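<instruction>
Derive structure tokens from the sequence
<entry> Chain with its tokenised backbone below:
===
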Amino acid sequence: MRTSALPYRLFARAGPDPLYRPHYRPLYRPLYRQEPPMFKAILLSQSADKKTLAEFSNLDDARLPDAALRPVTVDVSYSTLNFKDALAITGRGAVVRSWPLVPGIDLAGTVSQSADAAWQVGDAVVVTGWGMGENHWGGLTQRERVEAGWLLKIPAPFTARSAMIVGTAGFTAALCVMALQKHGLQPGDGEVLVTGAAGGVGSIAVALLAELGYRVVASTGRPQEAAYLGRLGAARIIDRAELSAPGKPLQKETWAGVVDTVGSHTLANACAATRFNGAVAACGLAQGADLPTTVMPFILRGVTLYGINSVFVSNAQRTLAWALMAQHLDAALLDGLATEIGLSEAIAYAPKLLAGEVRGRTLVNTAR
């Protein structure tokens, strides 16, 4: 007698057949173990001599962060390549704090699984900051698990694509503009300087300030981008060389406000030339992390220096910043800010961004 965990049925042929022997056939096929779903991602690891290794990898869901700690899974449609991401990928900056790591400080996509009641399958979401790409796995992947509190619903009229054209760069620019507005800066108060104007943060800062009615002066080291900056709304363009060398601690009062993405001597000179009771919002260090200045602009002219951190910001502030951009950034204008690359191209593209060869925003399509 045949025994089995599966039910079997005896099959016999009709008619005599001396060579035929009864055979057994299972009523259903046994279940086979399914392999975890696969996805593509940029994966950073360290060699024995502490060098960064960046690979375009095939991973499975078992590699994702723990679902108990990150209860929402997002199918990522778009990410971005920012200055910080490029530093992480090339290993030129001490950005990564945990190895191995998927870089990328931004992502936008659709919730595919959720153990948190606030988020449902199919929700269109965006995440910027919160230590992604530094302490936590980031957005340069086709799939990611995140904390529920990191997510925001993509506000109309943004899509996943346009939300990533904005991304951390636009969000940071919006925070800078909000700081100047909170300080009391009004359109008509005078010229507002934006440094590093052809970069991601600078481009959106120029566009946002111009749309709000401010007279914007764009500083750039790429004179060939003058027409581009003019389309964004810059009233005039100056060469970054006017600001990048050591200067006097107090200079002619020129700027009613400043958005600085550069740091170092550029920020020092911007502060030195800011008008009485003016404000400077500092958010970047493309030239350097140093600030070779004196207290004179601050105690003799009452200049206020605002430091902008876009990584850890309350969701209330995030919502206000995204609402400001949704109201004042034109979709067609945004599209002109972006260069789209595939996820498979991000590693090779990172050095170009660090070399200052990239205009505006670098959008990463994870399907490619």
